Amino acid sequence: MTTLTAAPRALTVTRRHPLIGTEVRGIDLSRPLDGAELAQLEEIWMAHPMLVFPDQAITDAQQIAFARQFGELEVHPSLAHRSSAHPEIYRVSNVDESGEILPSQSSAWQYLELTWLWHSDSSFREVPSKGSILHGIEVPPEGGDTLFADLYAAYDALSDAAKARIEGLTVRHSHDAIIARSAGLNARQDKGSFTELPPVEHPLVRRHPVTGRRSLFLSPHTMAGVVGMDEQAGLALLDELTAHATQERFVYRHRWQKDDVIMWDNRCTMHAVMPYDSATRRRIMHRTTIVGDARPMV
Ligand code: OGA
Ligand code: MN
């Protein structure tokens, strides 16, 4: 008698961009991965910091279960954007839970519009997020692509003089800085409800705890200045580095298809949503966010 053992299904890995943005097929995110699959996926993820899994029509509960295999999950500080059924789901959506498009003057929309700025998730926390997983549930026919910048490559490409200039610098980040970047939110009294988050400091150059590679740690929407530098000079330096890191050669542009699930490493990338007509187009994305293991290392 022959015993048949199920061979592990082969994953197909295809680069969509020379640096960042890699498609993975041959996996079903709706069910638990076995140990070998999980180890294989972790390895792929560490080599390809932004993964795209097409055609994954998962439920929120399945997304949460998939994400938990990589660590504990964050609950987003903004009360208005948490899913009422699953607080671990952050609703990156211009449509509320009852299906209505958010008024452009609502604080809920004004806050989400700030995802159009470059950032890395939870850089306002003392321990920023390890990675995020985002499910495209309703995607607009045009606009609303998501850009991802490879911050390893951006660091590597700096001249030795530029690396020496930023060596050892520390950046102040805060959740309040996000709000301050929105003229609309700033002008109103009700800026939204957020759990309290004190300002934090992070290294400008960080070392990835798994790959050991160095990257720029940029998150322009939470960065408030460089420690020990004049405020304007610090912000100018950060702007200069951001302009460097977001050059086309370091950036993958993700054009969404419904039921794409994407997964990125917040420790070596940043991202931004491209504008879309949020008054008429519906865009519903559900995010789970993996808690980081430790403070960023140098
Ligand atoms: C996020 C975010 C990306 C998007 O989910 O962290 O910034 O494409 N949004 O909506
Ligand atoms: Mn984000």
The CATH topology annotation reads as Double-stranded beta-helix
Strand content: 15-25%
N-to-C order of helices and strands: EEHEHEHEEHHEHHEEEEHEEEE
Number of helices: 8
Output the keywords.
alpha+beta, binds manganese (II) ion, Double-stranded beta-helix, 22% helix, 3-stranded antiparallel beta sheet, globular, 298 residues, 8 helices, binds N-oxalylglycine
Helices and strands, with pairings:
Elements lengths: L11 E4 L6 E4 L9 H13 L2 E4 L6 H9 L21 E4 L13 H6 L18 E8 L7 E5 H6 L3 H7 L3 E4 L1 H6 L2 H5 L12 E4 L1 E3 L6 E3 L6 E4 L4 H15 L5 E4 L6 E5 L3 E5 L10 E7 L8
Parallel strand pairs: 2-3
Antiparallel strand pairs: 1-2, 3-13, 4-15, 5-13, 5-15, 6-12, 6-14, 7-8, 7-11, 9-10
The protein binds N-oxalylglycine and manganese (II) ion.
Characterise this structure:
- The protein is an alpha+beta fold and 298 residues long.
- The chain has one domain: Clavaminate synthase-like (Double-stranded beta-helix, 4-Layer Sandwich), CATH 3.60.130.10.
- It is built from eight helices and 15 strands.
- The strands form four sheets. The chain has a seven-stranded mixed beta sheet, with helices on one face.
- A hairpin with a 6-residue loop joins strand 1 (12-15) and strand 2.
- It is globular, with a radius of gyration of 19 Å.
- 37% of the residues are buried.
- The mean pLDDT is 95.
- Bound molecules: N-oxalylglycine and manganese (II) ion.
- N-oxalylglycine is lined by residues 92, 115, 121, 132, 134, 146, 271, 273, 285, 287.
